[in-house]
Design goal:
The chain is α/β, with parallel strands linked by helices and 361 residues long. 39% of the residues lie in helices and 19% in strands. The protein contains 14 helices and 15 strands. Strand 4 and strand 5 form a beta hairpin. Helix 1 runs parallel beside helix 2 and helix 6 runs antiparallel to helix 7. The protein starts with a strand and ends with a helix.
Length: 361
């Protein structure tokens, strides 16, 4: 009988993309080694992981890093980001020691970090191997913001050194700063679990009608365009993350932030996707082949890389942020629905990463 294995997992709480990627890796690991248990260190919602891996984890709510403070899905606050970084970094040595003691007590054999540098430092203090999984690191992000926030300089130096201390390095496209030394996997996303017809039946959308999925990631959005919707349109709009809102139209379906619908399932059911170009959305769209009306984020360093990947690999159409905010993107939906859907990809990076991690274990 295989020996049970416990893995520590530190996940940045920035948005939902990193929690999504981590959940996909954990799902893939459990498919290969059913005896694994995870100890999660993050403030990403516990329910998010329950939907993916059931009860196979312990949950420890700590703020592992700051990321970038956002005032909306498309806007950042660098001053607030710097204020919080100044309070958190460098990591308190006593805190790191206490977490390392906890990791040892939990009998973790490996610590995986989805761009959460605290986990690398804790693993080093505990004397166990660490694995960094990333498509960017925070020092790279801050470096590309530094012209507008000189206070980021010391944090860039500190974090760059921390990330270099990881024992193992895994990268997953779209890559912001490729490394020849890292293990390279395809984009990572969760697998769909339900069929198109099953999801449409649950949503009460006729099988022959067109469906557009809108998602803006893990940062709340007011969806201001809803107040200016046309009276008539011949397709259904399903909006993820519309917590506490009422639908203004019979063909608009609002889903709460933590609904029972997996995003990969919704993409299988939909005919087109509109949303912020964040990692998990791009990776899931890449896997499903769905036409993607991506909303540009001109201030985000990562968005340049993501948009280049979208243009090269996905059937897509760019939507300016002002067109999204003002609601004029609705007029372009018929154009988006005419784009031919791509074929689903045969390889999911989560499976390759799981195989690689099993060799380390």
């Amino acid at each position: 009988m295989p020996i049970p294995i416990t893995i520590g997992y530190f996940i940045t709480p920035h948005g939902f993309g990193h929690a999504t990627r981590s959940a996909a890796v954990m799902e893939a690991l459990l498919r290969r080694r059913s005896g694994i248990r995870f100890e999660l260190f993050t403030t990403s919602p516990k329910q998010f992981f329950e939907n993916s891996i059931g009860d196979r984890f312990g949950y420890h709510p700590i703020q592992s890093d700051i990321g970038v403070i956002q005032t909306s899905p498309l806007e950042e606050d660098l001053i607030a980001t710097c204020d919080q970084l100044d309070r958190l970094l460098p990591f308190d040595n006593e805190w790191v020691h206490d977490l390392a003691t906890q990791i040892i007590r939990l009998k973790c054999r490996l610590v995986i970090c989805d761009i959460a540098p605290l986990g690398i430092e804790v693993a080093r203090a505990a004397g166990i191997p660490s694995v960094l999984i990333e498509n960017f690191t925070w020092d790279w992000i801050y470096e590309n913001y530094s012209a507008g926030a000189k206070r980021l300089g010391p944090h860039i130096t500190y974090l760059a050194d921390l990330f270099q201390r990881a024992n193992h390095h895994i990268q997953t496209p779209p890559l912001c700063k490729p490394s020849e030394k890292a293990f390279l996997a395809a984009p990572i996303s969760r697998h769909a679990r339900s069929s198109r017809s099953q999801i449409r039946k649950r949503l009460q959308i006729p099988q022959g009608d067109k469906m557009v999925l809108l998602t803006m990631g893990g940062v709340p959005d007011p969806f201001a365009f809803l107040s200016t919707l046309p009276l008539n349109f011949d397709w259904y709009l399903v909006i993820a993350g519309a917590k506490g809102m009422q639908s203004p139209h019979e063909k608009v379906i609002l889903l709460p932030t933590h609904s029972s619908f997996l995003h990969p399932d919704l993409m299988v059911a939909a005919d087109a996707l509109v949303g912020k170009a964040g990692y998990s959305t791009v990776a899931e769209a890449y896997q499903s082949g769905i036409p993607f009306g991506y909303i540009r984020r001109p201030r985000s360093p990562e968005s340049i890389v993501l948009e280049a990947f979208i243009q090269q690999h996905l059937p897509s159409m760019a939507i300016p942020p002002e067109a999204y905010a003002g609601g004029s993107w609705i007029e372009r939906v018929p154009e988006l629905l005419k784009i031919t859907r791509g074929l689903p990809k045969s390889e999911n990076g989560a499976d390759a990463v799981a195989r690689h991690l099993c060799t380390l274990l």
